[in-house]
Amino acid sequence: MGALPQDEFHDFVAARRPTLLRAAMLLTADRADAEDLLQSALTKTYLAWERINDRGALDGYVRRTMVNINISWWRRRKLEEYPTDELPDTPIADHTRRSELRDGLDRILDRLPARQRAAVVLRYYEDLTETEIAEALGVSVGTVKSTVSRAMAKLRDEAAGELSSLE
């Protein structure tokens, strides 16, 4: 006899939560927002649990849900912060060189528009194919290619200044 749906869902969340939270953090760039995003996506997944026939596609379903929710949040968000060319002076904690580089890369990634950040995260952090990303974002493969290409160009431009300041 198979497990009850709520037990299956609980087992899925217990096994996949860390990976899904990492993806959510990369999408939102904030731990609290990432936890909210993952919780919202898991709630929607639980409500649709009985309708999801392919249990092997659950990660993709949750990722797609997170991307959709995150885009909705971005659309509703009022512009409360104004971009500036000057970064505030903040002391860098005594971390290893690798941590500093990672933090610098995260800051650069945070500056990308939501769609570009989502495409880069899904491609290079989650290692999805262009076809899988297109499905997750609901766009064509060509759009994924151009979005990732533009995002990588922006990342390269910004990396020169951001990461060189750490040396």
Give the name of the CATH architecture of the largest domain.
Answer: Orthogonal Bundle
**How would you sum up the major sheet?**
none
Query: How many domains, as an integer?
Result: 2
Percent helix range:
over 70%
Distance between the termini: 60 Å
Structural class: mainly alpha
Average pLDDT confidence is: 83
- Cα radius of gyration in angstroms: 18 Å
GO molecular function: DNA binding; sigma factor activity
Protein name: RNA polymerase sigma factor
Keywords: DNA-binding, Sigma factor, Transcription, Transcription regulation
Family: Belongs to the sigma-70 factor family. ECF subfamily.
Describe the structure.
This protein is mainly α and 167 residues long. Helix content is 71%, strand content 0%. It contains seven helices and no strands. Helix 1 (5-28) crosses helix 3. The protein starts with a helix and ends with a helix. The relative contact order is 0.11.
Summarize this, please?
By secondary structure, the chain is mostly helical.
Secondary structure layout:
Blueprint: H1 5-28, H2 31-48, H3 58-76, H4 97-110, H5 114-125, H6 130-137, H7 141-164
What attributes characterize this protein structure?
sigma factor, 7 helices, 167 residues, mainly alpha, Rna Polymerase Sigma Factor, Chain: A, Arc Repressor Mutant, subunit A, DNA binding, single chain, transcription, 2 domains
